[in-house]
Amino acid sequence: MSNRKYTDNPLKSLISDILRRNGWDHRYQEMEVLRCYRDVVGEVIWKKTRESRLQGKTLVLRIDSGPLKQELSYQKTKLMDAINEMMGGESLEKIEVW
Q1: pLDDT digits (tens, 9 = 90+) for 6-56
Q2: Total domain count for the chain?
Q3: What is the arithmetic mean of pLDDT over 62-82?
């Protein structure tokens, strides 16, 4: 006989629990938001993004190109909605473009 305890918890919930217990959940969420940002804007705009980071629920972007920076400023709401939809919830509340 084995002394192992089996649970019916899905793997996703187990991984989330491990990340939360070790304090890695914020870093994982940041990586997921940045992956979604890259998927939404495409490779060309991703390469023009000098820096991207998540501060709380704010995505902070530093862009090389002035015209691109202006265009992203106009499309903040649309970009935020697309990223939140990919993430499956309200991961972002604000986007700052520098």
Answers
A1: 667 788 788 888 888 988 888 888 999 999 999 999 999 999 999 999 999
A2: 1
A3: 93
* Phi/psi at 80 (5° precision): -65, -40
Domain span at residue 59?
11-97
pTM of the model: 0.78
Task: Supply the CATH number for residue 57's domain.
Answer: 3.30.300
How far is it, in rounded angstroms, from Cα 41 to Cα 77? Answer: 13
- Give 29-83 as a 3 state SS string: HHHHHHHHHHHHHCHHHHHHEEEEEEECCEEEEEECCHHHHHHHHHCHHHHHHHH
Asked whether residue 16 is assigned to any structural domain, the reply reads yes
Q: 3-class DSSP state for residue 27?
A: helix
